[in-house]
UniProtKB/TrEMBL annotation:
This protein's name: Fe2OG dioxygenase domain-containing protein
Molecular-function annotations in GO: L-ascorbic acid binding; metal ion binding; oxidoreductase activity
Family recorded in the similarity comment: Belongs to the iron/ascorbate-dependent oxidoreductase family.
Classification via PANTHER family: OXOGLUTARATE/IRON-DEPENDENT DIOXYGENASE
Record has Nucleus as a keyword: yes
Entry's Gene Ontology cellular component terms: cytoplasm; nucleus
Source taxon at top rank: Eukaryota
Function: Involved in the regulation of shoot development and salicylic acid (SA) homeostasis.
Keywords: Cytoplasm, Iron, Metal-binding, Nucleus, Oxidoreductase, Vitamin C
UniProt main location, coarse: cytoplasm
Metal-binding is among the record's keywords: yes
Length: 371
């Protein structure tokens, strides 16, 4: 072993002697506040799972398809629906611009999220819970009770529906968090419903306004979860990930990223980095929409890189049907040429699955696939 490697191993060992295992469960922010200079072993991915970080990122020029919300609402709707359909089939992701949510609401939400993670660990830890259905959950990694290797992320999850039931449980500190999150969740929910209407139309499922009303009814009462992700800067970003490859379980996710790059998606067999576009949402197809569209729209693997210099915040708004609904391929999308591809599924079986398995890649969706 070279002297440099020996020194590195010694530093990691010395730091880890000072870190007891329960300290790791307090989250990455807490570790950073303790001044670590090496990534603890619990976060080091097996060599094959590590990201390859090159100076010149070959994905720099990758751009997601752009969908203009204004166009979707205007005389060019048919053309915009075609682009939407192509994006959901070929990428599973698109960038939504001109979405109509004011900058102010977005900035207030990001700022309130940032301030939450700036609170003392004692304050944040009041919201730690192992109950996957708790109305508020602060935690770290992906599923800290199951993950063999931890990932470099802390999160705050706020159940948003129905708001009047969950609001009293949300953090009371920082003082502006509740108001910012109520405002943000209501606006993203409205936007989500408008996009669902467009998606149903793009799948050929609605021809009249009445069809549209019938279909959208169930979505109106659907679930919504806000996830504020905090990825502190990392001393050795090539050894770990902010979030490992996964697909989202719901129908659609509306993601807001700050100006720091990190999100990567699988496209044509390689990882490509999604450039942050100011004042836009990254929207992706979730497992439930892949099932509902009988495989036509793709729920695509994505992951998050961390970096040495900057911490990053993102806010994901995950939407789906109500908890008690059954998710199944739409009967209109099943025929001889395209037989049913997935079993019926519900939230309860999803929650049971993630509570008892390490959630990796698309393994939940795979478990629903008919062979
Ligand atoms: O932070 C990001 O860019 C992605 C977050 C994400 O994939 C998630 O919350 O499931």
């Amino acid at each position: 072993m070279s002297p440099t490697i020996v020194l590195e191993v010694e530093t990691r060992c010395e730091e880890e002697e000072r870190l007891e295992s329960h300290e790791l469960h307090k989250g990455v922010k807490h570790l950073c506040e303790r001044g670590i200079t090496k990534v603890p072993r619990k976060y080091i991915l097996p060599a094959l799972d590590r990201p390859i970080l090159t100076k010149k990122d070959d994905a720099t020029n990758f751009k997601l398809p752009v969908i203009d919300f204004d166009q979707l609402q205007g005389p060019n709707r048919i053309h915009a629906l075609e682009s939407l359909s192509k994006a959901c089939e070929e990428y599973g992701f698109f960038q939504l611009i001109n979405h109509g949510i004011e900058c102010q609401s977005i900035l207030e939400m990001i700022e309130a999220g940032r301030k939450f993670f700036d609170l003392s660990f004692e304050e944040r830890s009041k919201y730690m819970s192992n109950d996957l259905r708790a109305p508020v959950r602060y935690g770290t990694s992906f599923n800290q009770n199951k993950d063999r290797v931890f990932c470099w992320r802390d999160f705050l999850k706020l159940d948003c529906h129905p708001l009047s039931d969950v609001l009293p449980y949300w953090p009371s500190s920082p003082t502006e968090l509740r108001q910012a999150a109520v405002n943000y969740s209501e606006k993203t929910r409205f936007l989500y419903l408008m996009i669902v209407e467009a998606i149903l139309e793009s799948l050929g499922l609605v021809e009249t306004t009445k069809d549209s009303d019938d279909h959208i009814k169930e979505f109106r009462d659907g679930s919504q979860l806000l996830v504020v992700n905090c990825y502190p800067s990392c001393p050795e970003p090539d050894l770990t990930l902010g979030i490992p490859p996964h697909s989202d379980y719901g129908f659609l996710t509306l993601l807001l990223q700050d100006e720091v790059k990190g999100l990567q998606i699988q496209h044509e067999g390689r990882w490509v980095t999604v450039e942050p576009v100011p004042n836009s949402f990254v929207i992706n197809v979730g497992d439930h929409l892949e099932i509902f569209s009988n495989g036509r729209y793709k729920s695509v693997l994505h992951r998050v890189l961390v970096n040495r210099l900057k911490s990053r915040i993102s806010i994901a708004s995950l939407h789906s049907l109500p908890f008690e609904s059954m998710i199944r391929p739409s009967p209109k999308l099943i025929n001889d040429a395209n037989p049913r591809r997935y079993k019926d599924t519900d939230f309860a079986s999803f929650i049971e699955y993630i509570a008892s398995h390490e959630h990796r890649s698309k393994n939940f969706l795979e478990s629903r696939r008919l062979t």
